[in-house]
């Protein structure tokens, strides 16, 4: 069996000759030169046929004739030597190669090897060779000017590669700088290393055309990573390749080590360890980092690396605060200069982060060696971020420190604002940390925030569980009127006991919430919605106007847009102009805040579709209806009044389109919601009336693109994955037979007979287009969360 990864090769891309970093052993080259050189130092390393071709970078180097100097700098394993070797094989110019080692810090040794390498492609003058002959005296002062003159006067274009130039100390580096000044047009000197060579690089950037290639450019693309893994005979799914590329950040050696970890992990039910489980503290990565880097560092720097590994990003002031020391900025700059997998995040080098895999290892070592420091360091970070006004970072580090009180306080204060900013997924990740009934009862303010999010995301069971926990929690604490008022708002949103109780809950909340409280606009919104359900349109309009104004003042986009939509529905039947203007305002808000994938935006989209129909824009209306349908499955009896309103607007649009099947399907969904929440005031009457109208319409043609139920629309994105019916059922918490029945119904309605044909047809109809649609992306996060 072939070895999948050549770990003897530090470049990790198939080089047969290890190159620069080893102390090379060899015999003097039998070249007739008046001095000895090592043949192995002058040989361009051969490249394995299985090495990943770096075509784009090679072409960039081939076209860089105007640059007399190329510097390739990156940590070990990024493929520096491989790139230079592939360049040598494909460039029309002659290449002279010297693999640098520690002995080249004698300038005479370095110059002899440079002269020997150049002599191979165009003979060197005997006078220069003689000047380089060992004679017990310093040869540099005489030979260096002669070598520089020989370089300047060479007739044919060439490239001189000094692979491992970062090993050169001051005198030898100074000699190289003298040679750079004499490079003739069309020729180049290429220097490679793990760190910048000891040259006046800043001055060179100003005075000499300089091409620099670093870790960012050397990182493998997805296609290159896929080729590398396939060559290593590791078959991975697209998701695993993407995840592995993200974890390794394109680091070639890291991808090879990951491939080896997968291959040697054994199997679990016939499958190897998932590539998505690969971490930097895996033994292969740990051995590599320790042998190549960490073992060579002094203890104080190792301690700095370990203790700052708790930080996602680092700056000098932050590290000073966390470590209770000074001059961390200088330490970070020194670490970056040493190329210890530290990634700068801005041009000013003020903010950094560790390579993800290295940070994994450093965090594991911190937890093993100094576990008592982990909460202390995280709390210091939380205190620093709070002093800087960064609430989200404070929340994260408070949680990491085990300071649940602080995390709960901050989460409760920012959750609604972050949701309104279009980042509900971030809020859900914070809420997941509290998903325990005991914790929720201890922190009812968090529980009520979570219940609101679950309700808005269409998860009635979770919403009710979190609501119940918040109610139990406030029963223990009689001194928390604000959370009690929020619970009243949530009860009104969920309309558990009908519109009269909804109205009472909203009024109770408004009596206790200050106008500046984040929940106040929602209290006004549900107060107005309750009036709508009770058929009291005139007071409803006034209250909804107040809700819109309060939402705008506090920057609560979601409630603002909903209040405008509710007012739009209240516009007199003959005043379409006012209704359309209100809906247009809502559309502008939703677009600006990027809330199109939020289920609450479905009402505005459905209203807009009806507006388009009134203006005869039928195709545009159908597209809007399809978008609204994608969002509708997330509108459940968790917010029954809004969910039924959306189905009513969709059904009215389909009645206008004379699409009986689609109208009846949406009305059936509304009736299903009413079966769980029957007390919805005038909405129940409106559903019954529209059902009669739809029933009296003529039968529409089969295969309608709008006849899918909410459950069937939820299933569509998952049908396009590799998941089996059983696996889909597990993620949606239903049985395999239920999924099979829904799939067969989808096939019938779309007029197809197979799963692949159903996806193709759904794409043609715009139900799944351009990859994963916005609503499907939200669903995918839900599925992933449910599966974890």
Task: Name the beta content range.
Answer: 5-15%
CATH class of the domain at 39-218: Alpha Beta
How many strands in all? 10
CATH superfamily of the domain at 39-218: P-loop containing nucleotide triphosphate hydrolases
Report the span from N to C terminus: 36 Å
- Which percent bin holds the helix content? 55-70%
Shape: elongated
Poorly predicted ranges: 1-30, 267-272, 701-706, 769-788
Q: Which CATH architecture of the domain at 39-218?
A: 3-Layer(aba) Sandwich
Number of helices: 39
Quick tags:
788 residues; mainly alpha; Rossmann fold; three-stranded antiparallel sheet; 39 helices; 60% helix; disordered C terminus
What's the topology here?
Layout: H1 55-62, E1 69-73, H2 80-90, E2 94-99, H3 107-121, H4 126-131, H5 140-152, E3 158-163, H6 170-180, E4 188-193, H7 201-207, E5 210-213, H8 215-218, H9 222-231, H10 238-248, H11 252-263, E6 267-268, E7 271-272, H12 283-292, H13 299-308, E8 314-315, H14 316-323, H15 328-337, E9 342-344, E10 351-354, H16 356-369, H17 373-387, H18 391-400, H19 404-420, H20 424-432, H21 437-442, H22 444-456, H23 460-476, H24 481-494, H25 498-512, H26 520-533, H27 537-554, H28 557-570, H29 576-593, H30 602-614, H31 618-631, H32 640-656, H33 660-676, H34 682-695, H35 710-719, H36 725-732, H37 736-750, H38 755-764, H39 774-787
Helix pairs in contact: 1-2, 3-5, 5-6, 14-15, 14-17, 17-18, 18-19, 19-20, 20-22, 22-23, 22-24, 23-24, 24-25, 24-26, 25-26, 26-27, 26-28, 27-28, 28-29, 29-30, 30-31, 30-32, 32-33, 32-34, 33-34, 35-37, 36-37, 37-38
Describe it for me?
- The protein is mainly α and 788 residues long.
- Among the domains are: 39-218, Rossmann fold (3-Layer(aba) Sandwich), CATH 3.40.50; 222-278; 497-584; 596-701, Serine Threonine Protein Phosphatase 5, Tetratricopeptide repeat; 710-787, Winged helix-like DNA-binding domain superfamily/Winged helix DNA-binding domain (Arc Repressor Mutant, subunit A, Orthogonal Bundle).
- Helix content is 60%, strand content 5%.
- A 5-stranded parallel sheet has the order 2-3-4-1-5. Strands 8-10-9 form a 3-stranded antiparallel sheet. Strands 6-7 form a two-stranded antiparallel sheet.
- The radius of gyration is 34 Å and the shape is elongated.
- The two termini are 36 Å apart.
- The model is unreliable at 1-30, 267-272, 701-706 and 769-788 (pLDDT under 50).
């Amino acid at each position: 069996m072939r070895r999948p990864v050549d770990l003897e090769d530090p470049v990790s891309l198939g080089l047969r000759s290890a190159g620069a970093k080893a102390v090379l052993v060899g015999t003097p080259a039998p070249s007739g030169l008046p001095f000895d050189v090592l043949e192995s130092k002058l040989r361009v390393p051969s490249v394995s046929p299985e090495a990943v071709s770096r075509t784009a970078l090679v072409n960039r180097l081939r076209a860089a004739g105007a640059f007399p100097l190329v510097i390739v700098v990156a940590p070990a394993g990024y493929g520096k030597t491989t790139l230079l070797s592939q360049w040598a094989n494909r460039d029309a110019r002659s290449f002279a190669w010297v693999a640098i080692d520690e002995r080249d810090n004698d300038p005479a040794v370095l110059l002899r090897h440079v002269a020997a390498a150049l002599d191979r492609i165009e003979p060197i003058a005997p006078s220069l060779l003689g000047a380089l002959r060992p004679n017990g005296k310093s040869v540099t002062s005489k030979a260096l000017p002669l070598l520089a003159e020989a370089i300047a006067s060479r007739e044919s274009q060439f490239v001189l590669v000094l692979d491992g130039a970062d090993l050169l100390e001051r005198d030898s580096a100074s000699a190289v700088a003298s040679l750079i000044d004499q490079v003739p047009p069309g020729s180049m000197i290429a220097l490679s290393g793990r760190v910048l060579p000891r040259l006046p690089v800043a001055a060179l950037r100003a005075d000499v055309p300089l091409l620099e290639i670093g870790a960012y450019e050397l990182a493998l693309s997805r296609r290159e990573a896929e080729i590398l893994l396939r060559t290593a005979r590791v078959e991975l799914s697209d998701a695993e390749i993407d995840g592995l590329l993200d974890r390794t950040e394109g680091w070639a050696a890291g991808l090879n080590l990951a491939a080896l970890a997968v291959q040697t992990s054994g199997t679990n039910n016939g499958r190897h360890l998932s590539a998505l489980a690969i971490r930097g503290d895996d033994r292969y990565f740990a051995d590599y980092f320790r042998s190549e880097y960490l073992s060579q560092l002094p203890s104080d720097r190792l301690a700095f690396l370990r203790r700052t590994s708790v930080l996602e990003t680092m700056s000098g002031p932050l590290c000073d605060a966390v470590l209770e020391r000074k001059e961390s900025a200088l330490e970070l700059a020194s670490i970056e200069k040493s190329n210890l997998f530290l990634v700068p995040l801005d041009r000013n080098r003020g903010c950094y982060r560790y390579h993800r895999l290295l940070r994994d290892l450093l965090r594991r070592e911190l937890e093993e060696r100094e576990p008592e420091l982990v909460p202390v360091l995280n709390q210091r970070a939380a205190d620093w971020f709070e002093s800087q006004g960064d609430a989200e970072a404070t929340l994260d580090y408070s949680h990491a420190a085990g300071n649940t009180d602080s995390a709960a306080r901050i989460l409760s204060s920012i959750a609604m604002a972050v949701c309104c900013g279009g980042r509900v997924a971030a809020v859900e990740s914070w809420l997941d940390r509290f998903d325990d009934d005991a914790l929720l009862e201890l922190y009812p303010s968090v529980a009520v925030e979570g219940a609101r999010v679950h309700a808005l995301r269409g998860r009635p069971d979770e919403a009710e569980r979190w609501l119940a926990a918040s109610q139990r929690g406030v029963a223990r604490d009689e001194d928390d009127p604000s959370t009690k008022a929020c619970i009243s708002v949530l009860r009104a949103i969920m309309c558990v006991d009908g519109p009269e109780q909804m109205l009472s809950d909203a009024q109770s909340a408004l009596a206790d919430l200050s106008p500046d409280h984040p929940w106040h606009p929602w209290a006004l919104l549900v107060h107005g919605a309750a009036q709508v359900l009770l058929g009291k349109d005139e007071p409803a309009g006034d209250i909804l106007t107040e809700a819109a104004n309060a939402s705008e003042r506090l920057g609560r986009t979601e409630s603002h847009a909903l209040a405008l939509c509710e007012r739009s529905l209240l516009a007199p039947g003959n005043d379409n102009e006012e209704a359309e203007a209100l809906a247009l305002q809502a559309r502008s808000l939703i677009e600006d805040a990027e809330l199109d994938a939020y289920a609450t935006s479905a009402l505005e989209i459905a209203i807009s579709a009806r507006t388009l129909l009134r203006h005869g824009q039928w195709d545009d209306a159908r597209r809007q209806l399809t978008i609204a349908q994608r969002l509708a499955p997330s509108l459940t009896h968790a917010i029954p009044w809004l969910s039924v309103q959306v189905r009513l607007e969709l059904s009215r649009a389909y009645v206008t389109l004379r699409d009986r099947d689609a109208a009846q399907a949406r009305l059936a969904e509304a009736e299903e919601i009413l079966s769980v929440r029957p007390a919805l005031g005038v909405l129940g009457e409106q559903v019954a009336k529209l059902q009669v109208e739809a029933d009296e319409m003529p039968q529409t043609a089969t295969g309608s693109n709008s006849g899918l139920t909410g459950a069937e629309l939820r299933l569509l994105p998952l049908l396009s994955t590799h998941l089996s019916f059983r696996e889909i059922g597990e993620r949606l918490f239903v049985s395999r037979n239920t999924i099979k029945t829904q799939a067969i119904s989808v096939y019938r309605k779309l007029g197809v007979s197979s799963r692949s044909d159903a996806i193709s047809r759904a794409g043609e109809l715009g139900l799944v287009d351009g990859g994963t649609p916005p609503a499907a992306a939200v669903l995918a996060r839900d599925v992933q969360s449910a599966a974890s």
